[in-house]
Amino acid sequence: MRLDRQRPFIVTVLVAAMLAGGCTHTAHFWHCKAPVIPAVAQNEMPRELCKTSLPDYRVEPPDILVVEAIKIVPKAPYRIEPLDTVQIQVIGALPDQPILGMYQVDASGNVNLGPPYGTVHIASLTIEEAQEAAKKHLEKVLQTVVVSIALGESGARQQIEGEHLVGPDGKIRLGTYGGVYVSGLTLDEAKVAIERHLTQFLEDPDISVDVYAYNSKVYYVIQQGAGQGDGLQRFAITGNETVLDAISQVNGLASISSKRVWIARPAPHGQGEQQILPVEWNAITQGASTTTNYQVMPGDRIYIAEDKWIAFNAWVTKVTTPFEQIFGFTLLGGQVVRANKTYRVGGAGGGFFGGGFF
Questions:
Q1: Nearest CA among 253, 306, 251, 303 for reference residue 279
Q2: Which of 162, 189, 216, 318 could disulfide-pair with 185, CB 3.0 to 4.6 Å?
Q3: pTM value?
Q4: 292-318, pLDDT tens digit by residue?
């Protein structure tokens, strides 16, 4: 029997054997025992033309929050810190080199007054102590000076303001002011928690909190792979996506996909079983129906089933390939033996392994 004629024979034998044993082994392809899908596509389910707003957003890792400092006033007596900005005015400075303006305290705690005067260390000093330190320093160059220093902007603002990643421990980091636990809180609750923490260092702080990157609330699109492994993609949710929006993220249905699509929606703890929402693909694409173009919720799994014929073909190939290889080796061995016998009968030397070829 030729090798190219063996494949139909092998397939026929395998299918007959499985059919003889019932549909258990072929249910994956022929759906003799199709899974029971609960009918939960109720009329009140949010969908394309009838969407709903999601509940208050709760912060979780790895969201990124943006914090703005509205009122940041250090508690008295305040001691100057690195990265603070101070306003300095000196009466009696050189006419061509005045000292007047805003000066930043560098990381080492010094403030640079210009080439003629050099730097003076004022970190960890109160405003009054800083004025006295600057006066003593300038008197090395000038005869009579009057120094006035005021806090322009606290370095606390720079550490508090900006984008902050919610870490695996549920906290955001505010530099020298430590971490604040915000996981599971709404934005209003996170604002209160951060302000309460900052009252240890600041006088009645006032901040605003918003979400810079929504990373913790996601949905998944799963494409069954027809024997080649399932595809899984994860997307951050904005609160406005529908099934069509989600599938457009993966460039539509693949060539190995069927038009059987559904949403598997997890149920909250202790609130019943998960929901299965069948999607009528032809209706929402060809007919512009919105009935099953559901709004996607955080945690949804949008499942795209494989084409059963492509999956069956892949399965048959996987099963029959080892047999084809075995029969192929058998045929090759038989051909070698016959050729070797023919060669010996013809008297042309020692056959394949005689002096004729080797």
A1: 303
A2: 189
A3: 0.66
A4: 999 999 999 999 999 888 878 877 777
